[in-house]
TrEMBL record:
Domain of life per record: Bacteria
BP GO annotations: tryptophanyl-tRNA aminoacylation
UniProt EC number: 6.1.1.2
A molecular-function term among this protein's GO annotations: tryptophan-tRNA ligase activity
Protein name: Tryptophan--tRNA ligase
SUPFAM superfamilies noted in UniProt: Nucleotidylyl transferase (SSF52374)
GO cellular component: cytosol
Keywords associated with the record: Aminoacyl-tRNA synthetase, ATP-binding, Ligase, Nucleotide-binding, Protein biosynthesis
UniProt record similarity statement: Belongs to the class-I aminoacyl-tRNA synthetase family.
């Protein structure tokens, strides 16, 4: 049943209060998250984390370690706990400033799961059946966790809870952000304007960093620990150099940017561009007449980006109580930010 705008007094106030309390003085609110399912990779950095750092001064930002999402696949509780803290420490080491943005852990803010249920009651089975990630990782397997199926709805709740206008993510999250948009629009249409409709904000370079050994697959934190294809953010410099120097390219003697037909070399150019702030990986190709120099420069550029992060990580990891305290404080702020939207959604849907 549709309601008119006058049925929703207070709800529009919630939508606008996100703006009124935005310390950056803009209408932008940015939300994004990373799952602590493995050790973070260069893909996570170029597609997401590095951009969080750049964006934090431009808008109100909430960045979350989305630990509930890590329960969707087989997991070891102790490892999950360690990876959650490691991911939060990497957020800080990369340069996210808890005085500027809200850094939080998803499971500390119960509003995420509460809103998820309201959105599960808005989403259709048909649209979840179309989710590529579920099709690839879980469909047809009897021991697939139910939470893997409903995971995109939790992700929508994550975003909508904070009135996220922009969601900086890598290319692989496009379908999930689309679902968040569809659910926001549907809920608003059915029950009155409650949610801000978010936009995906893809990286211009490095939106899909590929595996160095298998450049037709994305670089993933789920890769085996000894994989030469994934550069981990905490890999020592010599390991990074080794991984880049062994990257698969092709038999063509020249260096050229053609992601479709030459994925290996194009991926190196993309990484080089992403790590040097170049906006056009194709333009970099002309500077090289062989792979050796390209690999050397790419490795140097990656080390140049990751070494400062790793030094800072070593300092922060020595004081885990500080990281835990930062997350506790972040959770308090996140709960305050989330409460009005959750309350408005509950009222709108008839609770
Ligand atoms: P996750 O944890 O798989 O990845 C975290 C972020 O890193 C990006 N990314 C990549 N970007 C470029 N190249 C790659 N090879 C690469 N691999 C990963 C992802 O696109 C993502 O931005 N469902 C999300 C986590 C999530 C979330 C959210 C994100 C949960 N709730 C709300 C945004 C908003 C995920 O699995 O990301």
């Amino acid at each position: 049943m549709s309601h008119t705008a006058t049925d929703n007094r207070g709800i529009d106030d919630t939508v606008t209060s996100h703006r009124a309390t935005n310390p950056a003085g803009t209408n932008r609110t940015i939300f994004s998250g990373i799952q602590p399912t493995g050790r973070l990779t260069l893909g996570n950095y170029l597609g997401a984390l590095g951009r969080f750092v750049d964006l934090q001064h431009a808008a109100r930002c909430v960045f979350c370690v989305v630990d509930l999402h890590a329960l969707t696949v087989e997991h070891d509780p102790r490892r999950l706990h360690q990876l959650t803290r490691e991911t939060a420490t990497i957020y800080l080491a990369a340069g996210l400033d808890p005085a500027v943005c809200v850094l939080t852990r998803q499971s500390d803010v119960s509003a995420h799961t509460e809103l998820m249920y309201l959105l599960e009651s808005t989403a259709y089975v048909g649209e979840l059946n179309r989710m590529i990630q579920f099709k690839e990782k879980g469909r047809g397997r009897p021991r697939t966790r139910v939470s893997l199926y409903t995971y995109p709805v939790l992700m929508a709740a994550d975003i909508l809870l904070y009135g996220g206008t922009e969601v900086p993510v890598g290319d692989d999250q496009r379908q999930h952000v689309e679902l968040a948009r569809d659910l926001a629009i549907r809920f608003n249409r059915e029950y009155g304007r409650t949610f801000v409709v978010p936009e995906m904000s893809p990286a211009t370079v490095g939106a899909r960093v590929m595996d160095l050994q298998n450049p037709t697959a994305k670089m993933s934190k789920d890769a085996p620990a000894d994989s030469l294809g994934s550069i981990r953010l905490l890999d020592p410099p010599e390991v990074i150099v080794r991984k880049v120097s062994r990257a698969v390219t092709d038999t063509s003697p020249d260096v050229g940017y053609d992601p479709e037909n030459r994925p290996g070399v194009s991926n190196l150019l993309e990484i080089l561009a992403g790590c040097t702030g170049e906006s056009d990986p194709a333009a970099l190709a002309g500077k090289y007449d062989g792979y050796a120099a390209l690999k050397r420069d790419t490795a140097d550029a990656v080390v140049g980006v990751l070494e400062p992060l790793q030094n800072r990580y070593a300092e922060l990891a020595a004081d885990p109580a500080h990281v835990d305290a930062t997350l506790r404080l972040g959770a308090e702020r996140a709960r305050e930010l989330a409460a009005p939207t959750l309350a408005a959604a509950r009222t709108a849907i008839g609770l």
